[in-house]
Amino acid sequence: MTARDSSPDTDKPVVLMEGLNKHFGSLHVLRDVDLSVAPGEVVVIIGASGSGKSTLIRCINGLEEFQQGRIDVDSNELRPNGASRRALHTIRREVGMVFQQFNLFPHRSVRDNVMLAPRKVRGWSREQARETADKLLKRVGIADQADKYPAQLSGGQQQRVAIARALAMQPRLMLFDEPTSALDPEMIGEVLDVMRELAREGMTMVVVTHEMGFAREVADRAIYIHQGSIVEQGPPEAVFDNPQNERTQSFLSRVLKH
Q1: CA proximity to 175, closest of 22, 83, 77, 58
Q2: Which pLDDT score is estimated for 11?
Q3: Distance separating the N- and C-terminal Cα atoms of the chain
Q4: Is there a contact between 45 and 53 (Cβ–Cβ < 8 Å)?
Q5: What is the value of pTM for the model shown?
Q6: Distance (Å, rounded) from C-alpha 29 to C-alpha 50?
Q7: Would you state the pLDDT for residue 98?
Q8: pLDDT tens, position by position, 62-74
Q9: 29 with 4: CB under 8 angstroms?
């Protein structure tokens, strides 16, 4: 699989991470991480719980500060121990993120949840935001749920609302932090189907997931992280079928049995 081209500037990475180190007190969570993500590329990050996967992608949009290194996100630079307000504002306009938990506003309808960010952050009119919300809810397969409230939806439907909400900002990059981990098994497929469609359409994506079949199918590149370090990366068929690192071999031998 080759990276999909979704940008006229195909030579410049959407994400460039160099020498990233992150500490939580005395705990060294990320160690000298170098990573680039090309326009249209789908990068899937795998690894054991506590290996630093979620912390890594949270650093990309400034949800976590780091102590050494640098991150460039679409020509906006994040530096150690905090970023300028302007850089953070720009990055959060251009980067959509979907979390393990749905984080929807329970007192707002599904449509209003999707409309809120474009109106508040991009200054769209109510009519423009409503039209976009309805298109996106149709795109993720829940147009008929627009007037309901989150509590009236299944977990899979709520996560699809969260994806539509992130897409409403028209992001250059989508980050997914284990988006199916809080779902019942029968609901996982409907969320992964939406993500597959985004990948086919050329959305640049960084995905932390335990869904190995999805990772193998959709990724342009698979990355295995162990104790905060990238120890192996490459095309998914190489990483999954012929891993070179002993730690990758051990991890996959455990997870692929289930």
Answers
A1: 58
A2: 74
A3: 26
A4: yes
A5: 0.91
A6: 9
A7: 95
A8: 999 999 999 999 8
A9: no
